[in-house]
C-alpha cells in the first residue's frame, strides 16, 4: 500500500540506445505494483511501433532543440539526403559519455555529435529529458486524465555503474529545464514523496 498523496508515478528510462517511460496510477499500484502502463512510439517512415524510441536528439544550426527519437532520426536522414545536414547537430548513443572516468563532469563538459561537432552535455541531456517529460504530459492531457504535474512523482533511472558525479549530472540535467523530476538510483519502490 502506498503512503503518498501523488496520483501518478512516472519512471523515465533514459537508455543508451532506446528511451521511454512507464507509469502507474496510485490505484493501479495499490492493486498490482508490477503492472505499469507504457506508451508506444511510432515511426512514420517504416510503420514501426515500439515501446521505446531511439535515444537520439537533433538540434538545428543555432543549437535549438528540434526533435527526439524516431522523429530525430527521420528528419536527420531527410536532411542528409538533401545534403542540408552539415550545420545540424545529431546526437545518438551519447548517454555513456558520462561514464568517462578520465573526464571531470561539470556543466561545461562537451560531447560530440555524430559528425564531431560539440555541444555542452547538459544542454543535450536536458533537452532529451524535457522531451520525454513533455511527451508524457501531452499523452495525459490527450487522454483527459485530469492529472496535473503536481500530482506526479517523477523518477529518472541511471545505471548502477555510474559514479556519484555522473548521477549528480543527470539530476542537474533533469532539473535544468523542468521541475520535480526525481533521480532514483534504485527505481520505483513506492509512491513515497
TrEMBL record:
Domain of life: Eukaryota
UniProt xrefs under SUPFAM superfamilies: Actin-like ATPase domain
Xref: InterPro entries: ATPase_NBD
PANTHER family: ALPHA KINASE/ELONGATION FACTOR 2 KINASE (PTHR14187), HEAT SHOCK 70 KDA PROTEIN 12A (PTHR14187:SF5)
The name this protein goes by in its record: Heat shock 70 kDa protein 12B
Organism: Magallana gigas (Pacific oyster)
Higher taxonomy: Eukaryota, Metazoa, Spiralia, Lophotrochozoa, Mollusca
